[in-house]
Design goal:
The chain has five domains: 196 residues, Rossmann fold; 214 residues, P-loop containing nucleotide triphosphate hydrolases (Rossmann fold), CATH 3.40.50; 78 residues, Arc Repressor Mutant, subunit A (Orthogonal Bundle), CATH 1.10.10; 168 residues, Sec63 N-terminal domain-like fold (Orthogonal Bundle), CATH 1.10.3380; 78 residues, 5' to 3' exonuclease, C-terminal subdomain (DNA polymerase, domain 1, Orthogonal Bundle). Helices cover 50% and strands 9% of the residues. It has 44 helices and 19 strands. Helix 1 crosses helix 6, helix 30 runs antiparallel to helix 38 and helix 37 crosses helix 38. The longest helix is centred in the last third of the chain and has 30 residues. The protein is globular. Keywords: ATP-binding, Chromosome, DNA damage, DNA repair, DNA-binding, Helicase, Hydrolase, Isomerase, Nucleotide-binding, Nucleus. InterPro entries: DEAD/DEAH_box_helicase_dom (IPR011545), Hel308_SKI2-like (IPR050474), Helicase_ATP-bd (IPR014001), Helicase_C-like (IPR001650), HTH_61 (IPR046931), P-loop_NTPase (IPR027417), POLQ-like_helical (IPR048960), WH_DNA-bd_sf (IPR036390). It comes from Lepidothrix coronata (blue-crowned manakin).
């Protein structure tokens, strides 16, 4: 018998096997499969040929093994290549040619780099699984034969589990199809290799081949997947070597370019985008700040850098965005890329997010987070020593560093990343940056800027009936443009003294228009006023779709619709502000984006929120509420003018009263505001919060270490902001002493030497506070409330628990209606009324307040207001209808919606707080369920659907009623079927819903798989094993 080390002529054997397997596939009878095998080849028996080959090589026992193996590779390659040519159809050839053209160079490069890989290895993909098994065993035994002379005497048993052969293609980044396990006969499971001849092996192999299932995967698809895998490999190598020529699409596989074309309609990049991506500083992985006008295409550059990090460098990425709505929009937009390219997209917003995140073994994660959740995520990665897993952090709207408590939190997050991880790259982008030098020092970053805008922006101001163009070259900043050409009656002049109707009718209904108003009430008034004086022809424009929108809003409100919207929508007009529910806002945004609505009267929040551009932007007045407009706000608002690919130019018109003329002149010609640190201004959420977490995370535990850290913050760069009386080290010392007094830190700070080496430690309460992201202004009060709750927590209903989960910082804006307060109190059960007494609001107080009597007993107004808001939440959780609750409590439905969102987020923080304190163990299970209730506030059966990014209550009801009742239903849905079954659903929305559902399902499955692998992992420290 031929020794198994000799694999010469393996390719010939393969060809014979293929011929046999083709013939065998025609035979339905298993018993008669080899009854008369000589008849296959007529006089020249197939297996007789095998016998001849075997005898021939038995005679030449001195053949060099190494040479034989080399010849085998060549023959195997040519044999398989011939088989490929025979089997491909003409269309497949065209596809392969295209794929080869793009990837041939890279494949050769890889072969040169990876010399250990056999050329025939990738070609084995074409072999049937039975041949693969056969050749694998031949190779195993050949190496055994070379290493052990006695191996001839050994019996080898092929393990049944090895029947499941997995194709290398299944490891491609976007492989959707996996090779199916092959079903072999029991006879082939254990083969006595010593006594069997090669002929018997071939017979066994052909049997398995004939019975194996045919893979239902097209060759074209497999080859495309192979090309993608190769390109990712080459791109990864190229980026590591920092070469200039970094691959087909900025170091990424060409499939990424195809996805941008298919999903976004992007054919080519702007010149500035190309220049930015090719910056030498980026190739060297330096931090970067880049600034361009709104609508310039900043986000696309960031997304390409994110994909480079995930696919080529195989690192996780954190993207920080300012608002929950933008996070959800980005989740929907990038889930399709994750599905196709094999990475996970995880949401960290509101009450969503896992701390620390699951450590993935295979797929990398893109975390998309709000500022607050991004900070908590970074803390958890530092604590678990995983911050180095984060390869890239992208911050949108970097100018928010200078905006209040959220700016302070953003500064803290970035400072911690800079200090703890030298290999994490930070990219910041904004349309409105001025003192870039300070930000560069803080982030140790390069700077790139460009004035590019895809659509020209023309700025105007209107004073009375004259429109002036903004021109910084002239002495007074304005040049005359034109007079308004619109005839006003005396009645209309009184109703519309600012000529808004004249300005909007120049563009609507054929083009879109935004009117930014100072207040929410003003938005509604402007929308009502405009539609009153529009001609009836405006109603005819897309009339059916506008009727559908009103009907949709009616469904959202369970039969109720806002009377203002009911009046304005038939004319294509609506308002947009925080007084709307999430569902209403989303429906109006979608209708505006699709052109059903042509005019939105909105507040300044829309300028920083979701992307809704317009042909013309009108600023109703140079004010936001009662404050005069800032240059940053002005730039963001007018930046919405002009839609790339639709408009030739965008226009902004600022309506100015004569009294404000000089202020507006200064506004339009002034530079952007500087960005200053808010660590000191926001003391409990800024400086003190930072100092507490530095000690808690062991980033800095002595005064000297804390001082070193603080020098690297934006405040450290801008020390001129500090008052002359106190230095930075003195401010730090005061902050640490304050934390020790509050019982959050332990240690002693020397009066003489601020830089003493005394080590500070965190107390359990301090740890719970920073891990729960609790505002330090309320942490002691929260602890006392939870402690008091343990003495007599009333669990007949969730009222008592809801009181504990009602945020402290919303109570100051609440003014209770005492009659409603009393009515709601009287509807409670006796046990629930006891809750009011426990927290410190006796029935007598509410009764006297409602009847207008004098109150002698002093009752804490913050507690009274907090309980009132708890009644709102309690009613909402029971009824799950924002409209009904807002009417009952005489509040705007937007206020109720925001209260619910705040409570859900605070309940999540409360849960993390309680997890760190053993005495509060009882709250853990209770708060887990309550957080879920507050997050979704819908009937239980809708929760799985609402977990999908962008699916709100109204859409979830539609999907549920159409039969899509689980996450799996949505993940496997056909977008075209969804469009037919769900009213008011566009093709783009349907695709995004399916992609988001697939991503969420994939994420959950990965998490379970990781858990299983962790459970099955063999411990390295088993006693007695060493």
């Amino acid at each position: 018998m031929i020794p198994f080390g000799f694999t010469f002529k393996k390719a010939h054997l393969h060809q014979l096997s293929v011929q046999a397997s083709i013939l065998l596939c025609c035979n339905d009878s298993e018993e008669d499969m080899f009854g008369d095998y000589d008849s296959f080849c007529g006089n020249d028996s197939l297996l007789a040929q095998v016998d001849d080959i075997e005898h021939k090589y038995l005679q030449d026992k001195n053949m060099d093994v190494k040479a034989a193996r080399e010849i085998t590779v060549g023959n195997l390659q040519s044999g398989i290549h011939q088989k490929k040519q025979d089997n491909f159809s003409a269309s497949e050839k065209a596809s392969v040619l295209k794929a080869d053209k793009e990837g041939a160079c890279q494949v050769q490069d890889r072969d040169l780099v990876d010399g250990s890989r056999e050329p025939a290895e990738s070609l084995l993909d074409d072999l049937p699984s039975s041949q693969l098994l056969y050749f694998e065993k031949m190779d195993e035994l050949s190496s055994a034969f070379r290493t052990s002379p006695d191996s001839k005497e050994r019996r080898e048993c092929v393990n049944s589990s090895s029947n499941k052969i997995r194709s290398p293609l299944s490891y491609c980044a976007d492989a959707e199809h996996r090779n199916r396990p092959m079903d072999f006969s029991s006879d082939s499971k254990c083969v006595l290799l010593k006594t069997e001849s090669l002929k018997d092996h071939l017979k066994s192999a052909m049997t398995g081949n004939a019975k194996a299932q045919t893979l239902q995967v097209s060759k074209t698809k497999q080859l495309k997947e192979a090309v993608l895998s190769e390109e990712i490999f080459v791109a990864r190598k190229a980026i590591e070597s920092s070469s200039v020529d970094i691959g087909p699409f900025y170091g990424l596989p060409s499939k990424v370019k195809d996805l941008f074309r298919q999903l976004r309609g992007i054919e080519t990049l702007y010149e500035w985008q190309h220049d930015c991506l090719m910056l030498e500083s980026l190739q060297q992985r330096k931090n970067l700040i880049y600034s361009l006008p709104t609508s310039g295409g900043k986000t696309l550059v960031a997304e390409i850098m994110i994909l480079q990090e995930l696919l080529c460098r195989q690192k996780d990425v954190l993207m920080i965005l300012p608002y929950v709505a933008i996070v959800q929009e980005k989740i929907r937009g990038l889930s399709s890329f994750g599905i196709e390219l094999g990475f996970l997209v995880e949401e960290y917003a509101g009450s969503k997010g896992r701390f620390p995140p699951i450590k993935r073994r295979v797929k990398k994660s893109l975390y998309i987070a709000t500022i607050e959740k991004g900070h908590a995520l970074v803390n958890s990665l530092i604590e678990t020593d995983r911050i180095s897993d984060l390869g890239l952090v992208v911050v949108d709207e970097l100018h928010m560093l200078g905006e209040g408590s959220r700016g302070a939190i953003l500064e803290i997050t970035l400072a911690k990343i800079l200090y703890t991880s030298k290999n994490t790259q930070i990219i910041g982008m904004s349309a409105t940056l001025n003192n870039v030098g300070d930000l560069q020092k803080f982030l140790r970053a390069e700077y790139y800027t460009n004035n590019f805008r895809p659509v020209e922006l023309k700025e105007y101001v209107k004073i009375q009936d004259t429109i002036y163009a903004v021109d910084s070259k002239t002495e007074n900043g304005f040049t005359f443009s034109r007079l308004l050409n619109f005839k006003y009656s005396s009645c209309l002049e009184k109703a519309d003294p600012d000529h808004i109707i004249a300005l909007v009718t120049e563009v609507i209904p054929n083009y879109s228009c935004l009117i930014f108003c100072p207040t929410k009430k003003n938005c509604e008034n402007v929308a009502s006023m405009v539609c009153k004086y529009l001609k009836k022809e405006f109603r005819a424009h897309r009339e059916k779709e506008k009727q559908d929108l009103v009907e949709n809003l009616k469904n959202i409100g369970n039969g109720s619709v806002c009377p203002v919207l009911k009046q304005t929508i038939p004319f294509g007009i609506a308002y947009h502000h925080s007084g709307l529910t999430n569902d209403e806002r989303k429906s109006i945004e979608e209708a505006y984006s699709s052109g059903v609505l042509c005019l939105l009267a909105c507040t300044a929040t829309l300028a920083a929120g979701v992307n809704l551009p317009a042909r013309r932007v009108i600023l109703r007045a140079p004010y936001v509420a009662n404050d005069f407009l800032k240059k940053n706000q002005y730039k963001q608002m007018i930046g919405r003018a002009g839609r790339a690919g639709i408009d030739d130019a965008g226009e902004s018109i600022l309506i100015v009263q004569e009294k404000d003329k000089h202020l507006v002149r200064d506004l339009v010609n002034s530079p952007l505001e500087n960005c200053y640190s808010n660590l000191l201004l926001e003391l409990t959420k800024g400086m003190q919060s930072l100092l507490l977490s530095l000690v808690g995370l062991k980033i800095a535990v002595t005064c000297e270490e804390v001082n070193n850290f603080m020098c690297g913050t934006l405040l450290g760069v801008q020390q001129q902001l500090l008052s002359k009386e106190k230095s930075l080290s003195e401010v730090i010392k005061d902050g640490l002493e304050n934390l020790i007094e509050k019982g959050l830190l332990k240690g002693r700070i020397s009066e003489k030497d601020h830089n003493s080496e005394c080590t500070l430690t965190i107390t359990p309460l301090g740890k719970a506070t920073y891990k729960g992201s609790i505002d330090l202004a309320y942490c002691n009060l929260l602890y006392r409330d939870l402690k008091k709750g343990l003495e007599g927590l009333i669990l007949e209903s969730n009222l008592h628990l809801l009181y504990l989960a009602t945020p402290y910082d919303v109570t100051s804006s609440c003014s209770p209606d005492w009659m409603i307060y009393l009515r709601q109190f009287n509807q409670l059960s006796a046990a629930e009324q006891k809750v009011a007494d426990i927290v410190g609001v006796p029935e007598s107080f509410i009764t006297k307040k409602a009847s207008g009597q004098a109150i002698r007993k002093n009752v804490d107004s913050a507690v009274v207001n907090r309980l009132y808001l708890t009644f709102v939440l309690y009613t909402l959780v029971k009824e799950t209808n924002i409209w009904n609750v807002s009417e009952k409590f005489n509040m705007s439905r937007g206020y109720v919606q925001n209260l619910l969102n705040s409570a859900a987020s605070f309940a999540s923080c409360l849960l993390h707080f309680c997890e760190e304190l053993e005495e509060f163990w009882v709250y853990k299970a209770l708060l887990t369920e309550l957080t879920k209730q507050l997050t979704y506030c819908v009937k239980t059966e809708l929760i799985p659907l609402m977990e999908v990014a962008g699916v709100l209550e109204a859409r979830a009801k539609q999907l549920y009623n159409a039969g899509y009742k689980t996450l799996a239903h949505l993940a496997n849905a056909n977008p075209e079927t969804l469009i037919k079954m769900i009213e008011h659903l566009s093709r783009r929305q349907a695709k995004q819903i399916v992609s988001s559902a697939k991503m969420l399902l994939s994420e959950k499955a990965e998490a379970l798989q990781e858990e299983v692998e962790e459970l099955l992992k063999v411990p390295t420290d088993i006693p007695g094993t060493h």
